[in-house]
Here is the input.
Amino acid sequence: MGCQKAIAQEIIKSQADYVLGLKTNHRHLCLGVASWFEKSLADGCAKPPHSHYLEPAGPSRHGRVEQREHWVTAVPSHLKRATKAWAGLQTIAMVRRQRQIGGKISSEDSYYISSLPLSTGAEVLAKAVRSHWAVENELHWSLDVSFKEDDCQVRKDNAPANFACIRRITLTQLKQETTKKLGIQGKRRRAGWDQGYLETVLKMGCI
Here is the structure.
């Protein structure tokens, strides 16, 4: 959802950099990047210049070992037309995640576009990708535990998207409210029976 030209433009206007995951909403660009890396890796990534970073394998959790490899390269000439509309885009990247559970090994490849120059290196991109997933995982955990999002039975029309938006707004409001030393669930209960506290939470978005 975040891989949009308008978002990239705003990030560049703010004098920041972006690393955006390519998905099927940009099918042709995603396939172009995937095809380039497939051919390049088969050729040993001999050209053009690239940066590679092999993330050390994390500790085994419940018999599971994960390892990630990251490749970054300047936008190839044949993809420059497809990437021209993306503000500040300089590099494309690939992340290969390998997971071993017992004797079974699985692999998954993800692709990215970035405004980071090639000289920044693949390790910086790796940290950006990992920090994004940390935020996503924390958000999903909070929504599931505090709002039972995974148990929601709303399925019709735009209702799922509307409810998801309301939950995220509510979670943000509750996190910003710091006068009560309570968890998210505790704050929700407090706002339900204390009108004054509910108004305090609602005002957080207006500060």
User: Anything to note?
Assistant: The chain has two domains: 5-118, 152-206. The helical segments are 5-13, 27-42, 80-83, 122-147, 159-176, 184-193, 195-203.
